[in-house]
Amino acid sequence: MLLFFLFGAGVFAQVSKDSVSIDPNYLEDQLYIGVTYNIFANTPDGYVKDGFAYGFSGGFIKDIPFNERRNIGMGVGLGYAFNTHIQNVVVTTNALNLNQATTNQSTYTIKTNSLEFPIEFRWRTSTLEKYKFWRIYTGLHVSYVLNSTSIGERNDELIQLTEVLQLEEWQYAYSLAAGYGTWNFYLHYTLNPFFKGSSSFDNGEVLKMNSFKMGLIFYLL
Fold it and tell me: Tell me: the pLDDT tens digits for 49-78?
């Protein structure tokens, strides 16, 4: 009876020890949620930003560690983003021209729904037991605009614009996420113009505005 008790206790202890052991092949930060404040860079003369333009994003990133410590690697993912831009530029389909609206009377909100394909180089100070750590993730962020709409406001009256927006469907951006624990600062700057390369104002000035987003991004296992 004593031998059975000692043997059983030994088996139970071994099972308990194994059950709490940590898999050395752990992965980090495979889900993300981001909130951003959106503006345009490289704006033309007469451009006016009006209102708070925002964005939301979320998705899955496959974590691919490069070393045994698993603190250096890359991530490849798929996600969804909704973004707004508010300014005084209205898009028309007339010969792919962009017409500048009256600054003091009109503003236009552009809304886009996009698929995201993030590709990140990842560095972090995480360990098997450490759940709060420093991270720096940077890389290329490819987006495909699924659809876009524009709503104008003139003299406090909403105007639904029916013109097709001349946006670049594929947008390529540099992204940077850095922080400690839950809170991570996020930057996103498109490398190609937001509008198509042939778009111009009526005076012939080519529009080369780039989208710039900054905010917070949260990672989950």
Answer: 777 899 999 999 999 999 888 889 999 999
Max CA pair span of the chain: 98
What's the burial of 55, exposed, middle or buried (CB within 10 Å: 0-12/13-18/19+)? buried
Amino acid at 29: D
Helix (H, G, I), strand (E, B) or coil at 50: coil
CA 76 to chain centroid, in Å, comes to: 13
Q: Where do we find the tokens 């973004």?
A: 83
Dist CA 177 CA 189 (whole Å): 12
Which residues does 122 contact at the CB level (< 8 Å), separation at least 6? 29, 63, 72, 73, 74, 75, 135, 136, 137
- The C-alpha atoms of residue 25 and residue 35 are separated, in whole angstroms, by 30
In whole angstroms, give the CA distance from residue 181 to residue 186.
Answer: 14
Q: How many residues does the chain have?
A: 221
Residue 164 pLDDT exceeds 60: no
Is 33 within 8 Å of 55 (Cβ atoms)? no
Torsions phi, psi for 13 (to 5 deg): -65, -40
Q: φ and ψ at 77, to 5 degrees?
A: -145, -175
Specify the amino acid at residue 210. N
Q: Give me 113's structure tokens.
A: 């729904």
